Amino acid sequence: SFRGSYFVRDAEFSPDGRWVAVGSESGDLRLFPLGGDGKPIVLRGENAHIRSVAFSPTGDRVVAGTSEGTARIWRLDGREDPIELAGHDGPVTGVAFSPDGSRVVTGSLDGTVRVWRITWTELLEYVRGNLKACLSQDRRMQLLAESEREASRKWTSCQQRLRSPLHQ
After folding, report:
1. Are strands 29-33 and 19-24 parallel, antiparallel or unpaired?
2. How many helices (DSSP H) and strands (DSSP E) are in the chain?
3. 135 and 144 in contact (C-beta within 8 Å)?
4. What's the start-to-end Cα distance of the chain, in Å?
5. For all residues of the chain together, what is the average pLDDT?
6. Which residues of 95-108 are buried (b: 16+ CB within 10 A; e: fewer)?
7. CB under 8 Å to 130, separation ≥6 — which residues?
8. pLDDT (tens digit, 9 = 90+) per residue, 121-165?
9. How are strands ordered across the β-sheet holding 50-55?
10. 47 CB contacts (<8 Å, ≥6 apart)?
11. What single-letter DSSP state applies at residue 81?
12. Buried b (16+ CB within 10 A) or exposed e, 53-79
């Protein structure tokens, strides 16, 4: 058994049975190893309560639905910031990956169900088209696969654009 100082909302086994993902009111997702010692991996979230969790079919990603109406997808190793899926007007109480791992379905107390395509190409297009802040040069290289030169140029351009009088 696992014990924490938080109210647990959902728990799910990984496909290989090595982990249990626990979503709680702490806002963080905890991955507890099974069959041995070891501390949980804590995937940091926002302040929103986690209402539902699910592993990808390959077990390398986990999705969590939140009380803010968003879902977040983390890599199991926690090496990247989560990808946030926003669009519901109420808490996301159900999440699941499609059998091939290319889509996520979310269900909300707002009465809607959404299907999200999560192919890398589509995510890149979404990120590039919907950024409201400037990504650092390092993050542009990591997340958008830009060269160092291109990332530097675009970061500088973004900073200048946000400082212009039209954006203040």
Report:
1. antiparallel
2. 3, 11
3. yes
4. 52
5. 81
6. bbbeeebeebbbbb
7. none
8. 556 666 656 555 677 888 777 767 778 888 888 888 877 766 655
9. 50-55, 61-66, 70-75, 83-86
10. 27
11. P
12. bbbbeebebbbbbbbbbbbbbbebeee
Partnered with residue 19 across adjacent β-strands are 33
Could you tell me whether strands 50-55 and 61-66 are parallel, antiparallel, or unpaired per DSSP bridges? antiparallel
Average pLDDT score over residue span 43-48: 76
- Residue 107 sits at φ, ψ, to 5 deg, of -120, 145
State the pLDDT at residue 123. 61
If DSSP states are collapsed to H, E and C, what string results for 88-140? CCCCEEEEEECCCCCEEEEEECCCCEEEEECCHHHHHHHHHHHCCCCCCHHHH
Q: What contacts 117, CB < 8 A, 6 or more positions away? A: 102, 103
pLDDT 10s digits, 5-36: 567 788 999 999 999 999 888 888 889 998 76
Handedness of CA 49, 54, 56, 60 (dihedral sign): positive
Dihedral sign computed on CA atoms, order 131, 119, 53, 112: positive
This model's pTM is above 0.85: no
